[in-house]
Amino acid sequence: MKLFKIIRILILLLLLASVAFYSKTQKLKSQSWASPLNVVIYPLNADNSPEVADYISGLKEDDFIEIDDFFQRQSKNYSIVTPQPTLTTLGQTLTDHFPPTPTPNSSPLEIIWWGLKFRYWAFRYTPDSESNHHRVRVFLHYHKADDNSVLQHSLGMDKGLLAIVHAFGDKRQQAQNNIIIAHELLHTVGATDKYGANNQPAFPEGYANPDKTPLHPQKKAEIMSARIPLTVTKSVMAETLKQCVINQQTAKEINWSAL
Known about the structure:
The protein is α/β, with parallel strands linked by helices. It has six helices and eleven strands. The protein has helices at 2-30, 50-57, 65-75, 108-125, 174-188, 248-253; strands at residues 37-45, 78-79, 86-90, 136-143, 155-157, 162-168, 221-222, 227-229, 235-237, 244-245, 257-258. The longest helix is centred in the N-terminal third of the chain and has 29 residues, at 2-30. The chain starts with a helix and ends with a strand.
């Protein structure tokens, strides 16, 4: 019995070591920016509503082209190898299997366990191949548009290059949906949030132009806060990625070098 327990522990340690090595390899390759980072959007109908189903059926890759344009535009301010940092494509619509979602107020151990389950789920239902093992997979949960609804928190994991995005299935929301996707995509390659507990942009790292005089109002949003500071205590959500920038702190986190 004791021998069996030891074998189980050794197998678990070997599995964790393998996952850690694979994650490290993924991260190094994704942050090299030697070639475009493949980003695949997997839509799913989170509400199982006919309105969202209609919206998803009408999606095209062009609906997400703003994301690639944003990264290409911002990369010109930094030194990276590839002139096209991301290449976003529309994957299959998921209908039968949804990724596991984290439980609110989970303990650190529960979060780790959820992360492992999420990575196994992604491996099982959207498996990597030799040619796409460094892609970012974005599982886009579309919800029925409702002015009174509050969406669940989106998240991006730098271990596994995985993201869960909650968005409204409405053409009027497409531009802001793309902001959320770009924000979570950056989490998968090492960027951190740039806002405080009150959701206001943190100074200076959450400001697009922290050296501006006078400081307020700002004209653009730093993508990892996604909000435009108007005063010390007031900000508004950026409306499109054209109103967002990648500042030096975020660039450093994702391994973009200063010119």
